[in-house]
Fold these 3 entries.
Entry 1:
Amino acid sequence: MPRPQSFLYDIGAYEFSGSVADITAPIISAISFNTPGQTAVTITWTTDEPATSQINYGTTTAYNSTTTHNATLVTSHSVTITGLIANTLYNFRVRSSDGSANTSVSSNQTFNSFSGVFNGGGGGGSGSSKSRTPKIVSPIFLSTTTSSLPQVITPVLFSPARIHNALTSQLFLGFKGVEVERLQKMLASDPTIYPEAKITGFYGVLTKKAVERFQLKYSIVSGGTPEVTGFGQVGPKTLVKLNQIYGGVITNPSLTYTAPRSPEEQALIDHLVAMVAKLKEELTALQIKNNN
């Protein structure tokens, strides 16, 4: 058989030319996501070569939903998932394909959508807001005065802006950012809870263990998993307790009217303010009576 002509390489019996086909899939790394909202979350990741972006997600590893395929070839990927159910554990995996259609799929990842409630309760599901008992989200501090007259207890309401370093988001394993750094500083102030005292801004295994010790110490959660009982993650009840214990320094302790968060809270605040005004009137009348 004659040799084919115009080939560039000699590999044994025949010359050969042409480029080697790309059969290597992209390498996916650095998967992360922002603090999940009630109905949306943004997930990011990187690849070692330009590739497409897509996410499979759902409440189980069957991944019953998929985001729109973004065919733009990039190395830094960002996809926002919308239409989530609040206070729900989601499973997801990211997918990227290079220009030669080699596809990589990540291992299973998880996140919890935000419940929308910071105060009260443990890790259970949220019900209708109409059936809730209204609660004051802002802390109430009681101050006392001493005199020859009966002791009067006056509620003093502080604006959230006056509480320094307070946490505002629920946090989970894999989170990173300023909120996590603030959490680590809180926990590190107690060596029995966070003896490693590493302030990295990343919610890793050490931070998770420290949160578990905090939950045990203050009888919030006694065990289980983050997905089922909230053990090891900063859920609504843990968030409230962290701010109560480590919530920062109160400045300018004068009577302050706190901006309402709902009509129900406004009504309760108005009721408390009216009670204080009435007590002041009664106190003034009692002082006048004693002076006479």
Entry 2:
Amino acid sequence: MVKNCRLCGSPHIRKKSSGVQQTSTYFTNNTYQLVACLNCHTWFKEPFATHEQISAHYNSLSADGIDWEKHEVLPHQKHIYDELSNLNSGILLDVGCWTGGLLADYTKLKNYQIYGLEPNAGAAKKAQSKGYHIIGKQADDIKHSTLLFDRIYLIDVIEHLINPVEVLNILISKLAQNGKLIVVTGNNKSWPFILFKTNYWYLKFPDHLAFYSNKSFTQIKGLTGLKIEVKYTKHYWHTNKRFIENVKSFIKFILSKCTQKTAFVHLGGITDHLFVVLSKS
């Protein structure tokens, strides 16, 4: 087992679960153990994926086959758009922008410049067709850029990062004077994470490598020197249809315990995400 936390470096870590099954063509380890840091309360998988595995995985994804663009404004997106209403113009960067669904509407407004980083070539091409200026695949690609951004978005991305502090420091260096870095990710202190642990849907993806808490971002605040504001948000709105889907998912999980098969609980409309704003001022 790794000896230090991958976020804060603390040696005070412990194993939460072991022998957890996961399957992916590009991740050679079909089982992992979940490790928790007692200092910053971050969880992470071991063995950790390599850059080569992550790169191969992202390159294999089809921009046509995966619909991460929903036909509704999701709760965290509403937070983003509400916050953007206070900014009449600006230069925005969407990190891991996929096909550009987040800020596509803003590309049509002359007072905004929309940039994106996206490792998947097919998705990047679609984002470009919506008005995004794709300037690289990852944060390293803008390390020497002279561009400064009023808003940088890291939406459901930080959990994929092998080197989160390094990436955050690069992005922070690209913030304009009153710029903000906005991060959305799962909250490992929310009750579904605590109750279901490795059976919660957010942990089933092999490329979800780390899972954060409010205290994780307090640690990030100390490492970066930025101001921080944390809100709690849902990934989906609560509806009657999603309630029924939640019940079905829970029943399937209970039955799986009887048959010793792996089942993941997917709960929509539950407050299980963090909406974090990091700013210089």
Entry 3:
Amino acid sequence: MNLERLEGQVRALIEQNQKVEAIKLVRETTGWGLRKSKDYVDALARAALPALSPADEKTLKQGVRALIEQDRYAQAVKHVRERTGWDLGNCKAYVDALVKGDAVDWHFIASRLSELLDQGMKDQAVGWLVAQGKMDAREAQNCVDLVLAARSTHSSPGSLQLPAPVVSQVRDLLAADRKVEAVKLVRILTHWGLSKSKEYVDSLEARKKRRRKRRRKRSEARGESPVFRVGDSVKVEPGILDPDFGIEIGGWQGRITGIGVGQKNTVMIAWDSVTLRHMPDSVIEQSVEQGLAWTEMGLKVHELELTSPRDTEKDVVEVIDELSRKHAWSWLGEAGKRVGKILTSVDPDDEMAILDAWEDHLAKHLSFPFEAEVSEYQERGPLQAGDRVNVHRIFDVDDLYGVIVRLRHGHRQYHFPLCDLKVTDQHSSNYQLVDDYAVWFANR
């Protein structure tokens, strides 16, 4: 196997915007799996891309903001992808950051900064940070230097210094009880392993607890100690009803995460893992559908009593992760429940793992060949909405277009996204399978 020759062929296909064919060529030549072949092609594609200049960045932002104002989110993501060549996750994060306005999406910042540093583009990384409008040149240079220093040292994480904005973001995530996201942010930026990243986040959390303990002691010395404190384990008194759904929640237990939230004598409770596991599915599904939080609740002080903890915060994180996967698509109704069963064991942050799960599920349950109709408007290409086609098999998976099928229209064969097709026979078992996939793809 001549890797040098393969690399040249892949680069040529990338320049012709034939990424699917490039991945297929790598798989056939090397015998690698889909994930490894895709990573190889993505790495070559990224290496061929220059960093965006401040002028290009400004033009890109203007175009994305215009699409956002027209409520065309999907087109905005596609616009970023076409202009930058970034992967789908980074493109979505970029658009999300602009949707939020001035809010800084540090997961996106970390991903893009890490990508530039991986290519040895230190000066471009500094320039890109400045272009975001959140740092001057000195601050950006210091940020890059600290990240590179963290990557190259073997010291204990607790003794290391990361950029101040990153530390601030990690603390904000901890305050919001989003420790998993805090660890993920540190891993993206530093390339540390899970254990080292968690140790760093734990060190910040420990410092916060020590400061809180000192403040509590000073408060107690002045005779101002409240009945409840953040971190206390509490249990709901018998007979108390859920303010949203009217079911009794007496005996539910959790930890206080906020005091005086919204109004006086009210506390915010994050439910513990035992309560979450016994929470009715209907409550979680209705909460997801209505955009309500199901992992926490605000209650009056007199509706609660102190109790002893019966799990750890790690247990809570694991159960929330499990239930979030199970109910992630509940808001889509019956179709969402079916989608949830397909994706329940897949990491929701791993786009390719999700697409791989769909590929496996569809390959096992679809009956080929079948007739379908192009259901979505096509900006270009030989196929247009309303065209009848015969679908023969699944061809591949792409992180932008999803599951790609091989089909025939007239005397010609094409590779086409399954999400843009609709099975013509509504009584066929294929109909619901393809429709569920299309619903998921449109709302992912």
